Amino acid sequence: MKSAQTDRFVHERLPAPSALPAMRFDLPELQLPDQANLVEELLDRAAAKGWGERPLLRSAKIVLTYADVRHRVDRICRVLVEDLGMVPGNRVLLRGGNSIGMALAWLAVVKAGGIAVATMPLLRARELGDIIDKSQPALALCDAKLMEELELAQRDRPVLKTIVPFNAPDLPGSLAVRAAQKQGDFAACPTAADDIALLAFTSGTTGKPKAAVHTHRDVLAACAAWPRSVLKATPDDIVVGSPPLAFTFGLGGLLVFPMAAGASVYFPEAPYTPETLVRTINAIGATICYTAPTFYRQAAAFARELGIGKLRIAVSAGEGLPDATRQLWKQATGIEMLDGIGATEMFHIFISSAGADVKRGAIGKVVPGYQAKVVDDEGREVPRGTIGKLAVIGPTGCKYLDDARQANYVKDGWNYPGDAFLQDEDGYFVYQARADDMIITAGYNVGGPEVEDALLKHPAVAECGVIGKPDEERGMIVKAFCVLKPGQNGDAAMVKTLQDHVKATIAPFKYPREIEFVSALPRTETGKLQRFKLRQS
Predict the structure, then answer these.
(1) Is the CB of residue 203 less than 8 Å from the CB of residue 522?
(2) Is residue 23 included in any domain, yes or no?
(3) Is residue 391 part of a domain?
(4) Would the pTM count as exceeding 0.70?
(5) Fewer CB atoms inside 10 Å of the end CB: C or N, the chain?
(6) What are the pLDDT digits (tens) for 101-111?
(7) What average pLDDT is seen over the chain?
(8) Which of 163, 190, 217 is the endpoint of a domain?
(9) What H or E segment, with its residue span, contains residue 161?
(10) How many other C-beta atoms are found inside a 10 Å radius of the C-beta of residue 145?
(11) Residue 522 belongs to a domain with what CATH number?
């Protein structure tokens, strides 16, 4: 099928064919047509599935059905094409928090054949400038409250010609005002399934973001994999969560996966805190929640106090889930957390288990449609129970935009997300650390997350991060950065208490020989711990 994207900027900057991942479409549901527009598939065809009058997007002020959303998206599409001159393949930068306005804008850009470049709302002008330099958008749709930093980034970048606020109904020229003057019934751009739908910028745990390219086929295949096999949402589900829509964990969990199931999503007026998330779950009857492990740990006390209403599934991803956090949440709610590991480069989760399939200490098994193995430095699969590098292959894969680091991620067709794992005899994958976060001390391999989990089991510790610190005698030592709970003293006695606790919890050689008490840990906007910043401190 011939591409409909006449702007070939991204297509021309994809990795060479020899550097692309091998793609597997082993399940019948992964067999997609050569022509597909993901918004046409998930939104326009909702009525034929009986979902037209079911709610899709919710907030405290309004509830929009699938039919309502389609009508609004179509009018925005007309603004993009007729007023703003967008042509298929143009990149459109999106800047906003999780809101109905942001969701509508994203869907319209993709339906009209554009390439959505969603950005985290807390990014500053310098970071936005890096994204503009990489993706070269001529148009941006921005939350009216977040214009300042984007306008600062625009000053030195004439490629970004137009910035339109998307949620200002009283501002002349805003997307809302323009769309209100348009008719609906916009025919979806007839994109090839392998046309580009979005650029997803990595969240920067290494300090060097990259742009992962995802096609319409990628997103639809992702909808047919983990959500269908593991999550198993229904049209009656109401979804809430904290991951930004600019993060593929949030885009999947809080927009496209609910649409694939005929479910609905609630967007809050302000970013969640652990307490407001629990209160919202109760107030709206939410049944599925997505957030990061740290958020669940902080929310557990409120869940214990307030209850969790109709919640039936709590999905954790974005960073490693300590078993201490899983058990704390389970004790507070009775819900066995649904853990998963995915990657921006792979779009979403590829290893996970739910319900009775959960095995304590493990993330889960490979999601149907994917294959995974643990390998050595030469790519040979290692024996079960041996720590190695995770390699994955399936219906999605890494395609960096014009980036030499493609060769680090894709080798012999397999994707290497950069994680150290072991696979047990039952086929469960057990997370050890990011591959570059493995600590080799006196010849022993120590996974920082395992030490973090042990520390979190002590009642004095609120949060912690563990790294390897260079040491002349041992090569590296295990160093921990700990945030203590209120009323706890970070003194020499506490250091010894925590060291003894770790020695009694896991193998004694893994204990942190150095502990530094801090008021907060460096995290990305999506909640991932930035260990590279701890190493720089």
Answers:
(1) no
(2) no
(3) no
(4) yes
(5) C
(6) 999 999 999 99
(7) 92
(8) 190
(9) none
(10) 12
(11) 3.30.300.30
